[in-house]
Amino acid sequence: MNAADIAWVLIAAALVWLMVPGLALFYGGFTHPKSMVNTFAMVLIAIAVGSIIWFAVGYSLAFSGDGAILGNLNHAFLNGVSMVKSTSGGSIPDGAFALFQGMFPMITMAIIAGGVVGRMNFKAFLLFLIFWILLVYTPLAHMVWGGGLIAKMGALDFAGGDVVHISSGVSALVLALMIGKRRHMAELQAHRPTAIVIGGGLLWFGWFGFNAGSSLAANGQAILAFINTNLAAGTAMIAWMLIDMMLNKPIKVSGLMSGAVAGLVAITPAAGYVAPGGAAAMGAIVSVIVYFGTTFVKEKLGYDDTLDAFGIHGIGGVFGGLLTGVFATKAYSGTAGVLEGNWSLLGIQAVGILITIAVVVVATYVIAKVVSFIVPLRADENEEAMGLDAFYHGETI
């Protein structure tokens, strides 16, 4: 075991955990003040749900066995998971790997809240998350990182383009469509710019652990992923700002942070697989796509993705995954991308993304339907009109 690698992975795990309260602040800054506490609660509850279910069965289902879609329960409740050695030939103990991976379902489930805050029954959301981590997240984690179907295809997903961003973004859209639009839809506004800046900053900071920690070692790949993460976010922020300038729109801090997050989403599947120049290009390209996806496309189609969970994470994750197939280099990923003459990787990436979307759409719809038979998915009309904070939480901002 390597002490430096263990220390880095533990720090990286803590950074990913920090992203959840960061996301709560980021989302909260955009949420109407009468439902800001509800937004905090919907995001933060993902920490508890994720911790318990990952410990009980999630880790085992994702990283045990050799099934195409799902693992087994050999390591349920972390049974047989060593805290002092690796059974896979790695430089960190299995327990450290389980801990690090356990942070990812937390932030993934928290992202989903962005599509439905302000109108979803809190009890229904809690039940939804319990089923979702079991039926969506763990199978995808196994298929992509646990040696399952998508991994065997040769698809690349360094830190969670498929598993985290596409899954959460698409799920948020499906759930939003099933629940229906807000009764009084309003343009997304920054009600608390300070919360957006602090929350967005914590997300950016935590993303260094999210991406660079996925190297699972304090090595050159971690350095590359760290550099690429920052570069992609920076170019994405600038691209978002330039579009606003060209459209003669004000340069809002909320827009700058949204652009940065779009770049962070984009580079996630590619962080350890592309050269810094490719990372910069990916951030800029995806930022432009997400900008128009969250404005003109959203307005044209008329869906109510409250805080752009689908627009930023779903759309950003899809194009980030596709561009991984373009910019991946053999030197860093072991597989050449389109720019090095290998078009097949782009096709593999596309198939992996389509499988991810299919799993998420079907499973999310079924889970939401089942939950609706237990408790209403949508908040009462009066509760929604007056704000969910006082009704569900007894607290207000």
Description:
It is a single chain. The protein has 397 residues and is mainly alpha-helical. 70% of the residues lie in helices and 0% in strands. The protein has helices at residues 3-30, 36-63, 94-112, 122-145, 149-153, 161-179, 193-212, 220-246, 253-267, 276-301, 309-327, 330-333, 344-374, 381-386, 388-393. Helix 1 packs parallel to helix 3 and helix 6 packs across helix 13 (344-374). The protein starts with a helix and ends with a helix.
- Percent of residues in helices comes to 55-70%
Output mean pLDDT: 95
**Number of helices, where a helix is a run of at least 4 consecutive DSSP H or I residues:** 15
Unreliable stretches covering 5 or more consecutive residues: none
Q: Report on the biggest sheet.
A: none
Order of helical and strand elements: HHHHHHHHHHHHHHH
Helix and strand composition category: mainly alpha
Strand content: under 5%
Distance between termini? 48 Å
Shape: globular
- Could you tell me the number of beta strands? 0
Task: Describe the protein's topology.
Elements: H1 3-30, H2 36-63, H3 94-112, H4 122-145, H5 149-153, H6 161-179, H7 193-212, H8 220-246, H9 253-267, H10 276-301, H11 309-327, H12 330-333, H13 344-374, H14 381-386, H15 388-393
Output the keywords.
single chain, 397 residues, mainly alpha, 70% helix
Quick overview of this protein structure:
The N and C termini lie far apart (48 Å).
